[in-house]
Amino acid sequence: MFPFGLTHGAVFVSYAVTAGVVGLNQRWKLSLIVGAVALAIVPFATLPFDRWLAKRGKLQGAWRTEKTEDPRDNTFIDNALRFGLRHPIATLLVLALSVTAVVTVLLQLGPPTEWFN
């Protein structure tokens, strides 16, 4: 069972990171980003959710790599997002290392069913 749990955990954390980056870029509400992450807990539940996002145009638009006149573009998060999008190799490396670190910590904690015993 270990390889399946490890695979599910790594895919879950990777999807959570991806949902966060896409949600920030598309300016989703926080509740939609949290919902995307919560749906990733259940295997394959993200597939209908992703179709729902596509039907509603929530995945449309370019990556925001340049600052615009929009006053929302001057936040720390937007500046960090733009920096990361302009430096994709470094960003992918940092995100891959972050996902690895989170999955490693979660493996050390054991199955979620044992966290509160």
Key terms for this structure?
117 residues; DUF3817_TM; cell membrane; mainly alpha
Could you explain the architecture of this structure?
With 117 residues, the protein is mainly alpha-helical. The chain has one domain (2-110). 66% of the residues lie in helices and 0% in strands. It is built from five helices and no strands. 9% of the residues are buried. The mean pLDDT is 89.
Runs in which pLDDT lies below 50 for 5 or more consecutive residues are none
| Gyration radius, rounded | 16 Å
Instruction: Tell me the domain tally.
Output: 1
E-strand count: 0
**What percent of residues adopt helix (DSSP H or I)?**
55-70%
Domain DUF3817: 3-54
Keywords: Cell membrane, Membrane, Transmembrane, Transmembrane helix
Subcellular location: Cell membrane
Main location: membrane
